[in-house]
Amino acid sequence: MTYRMIYGKQEIQIPQMKDITWANVLSKPTSFLPSAHNQDWSTITGKPSTFTPSSHTHSYLPLSGGNLSGDVVMKNGLAFRGNNTSGISKALVSLTSSNNVSVGSSEVSLASGDTNIYAGNTINFYTNRLSSNYKSHDLEYRREQSGSYRTVLRPVTNGSIYLGTDSLRYNTAFFSNSITASDLKEKQVIENFDFKVKDFIMGLKPIAYHRTDEGDTGIRIHFGFGAQTVYDHIQKIEIGDLSLVRATIIKNVESIENDDSGKEYKKN
């Protein structure tokens, strides 16, 4: 604002707005706090159509532990993993691409170390659970809670579990005590049974042989009897199968019945 004298009169001249710059404004505040208000989204110009999120993480559970309130769903072919002491990631529990559940690592390169399963008393194993009588296929590993406190691997239903098959057999079993099933409570004694001991013994034909089954070396010499020959012999003297052979499986025919593995047994 300036003053000047014109013909003895004082005149005040007000500068035009274009002559005022922000730098010439005195005592202006250093910041401006916006007042509370609402701004309609449609009135905002120059806004982007999409918003790319910045890299960040979410801590769904505290690192020191926490509780989940729902199921954790895992896609097949993926796994819950953990790092071992060498920093190598190993599968703890996985759902394979064929929808089988795997405990421990199924990766050959990572299949080191032990897989431990702990339970307070009993670990149950089920197969064919869709069957109406699946309980009969239950195998349990348990620690007795009274008496001798033995550690026992047993079927839940008596006589329901098999150890190996005719075609898939164990190699060697080691026991501290003999295997017995001689309880008279489980037997119906046949009175006056003709054992035909002489005919049975004299009709046996011992053989010397090398084993040729899978895993056998074929070097050691064995002595024994052929099951098919024994089967033929006990049938001729009519004394049953004597629990020596499985008469429904081992028969002296060119091709005998298939077992549950689908393999055939040929007469030698």
Structure description:
The longest helix is centred in the C-terminal third of the chain and has 10 residues, at 227-236. The protein has two helices and ten strands, in the order E-E-E-E-E-E-E-E-H-E-E-H. Strand 4 and strand 5 form a beta hairpin. Helix content is 6%, strand content 17%.
Quick description:
The protein is 6% helix and 17% strand.
* Order of strands across the main sheet: 3-4-5
Question: Could you give the order of the helices and strands?
Answer: EEEEEEEEHEEH
> How would you classify the helix and strand content by structural class?
mainly beta
Termini distance? Answer: 127 Å
Q: Unreliable runs, pLDDT <50, ≥5 residues?
A: 247-268
Number of DSSP strand runs: 10
List the SSEs and their pairings.
Blueprint: E1 2-6, E2 9-13, E3 79-83, E4 89-95, E5 101-103, E6 122-125, E7 139-143, E8 151-155, H1 197-203, E9 207-209, E10 222-224, H2 227-236
Antiparallel strand pairs: 1-2, 3-4, 4-5, 6-7, 7-8, 9-10
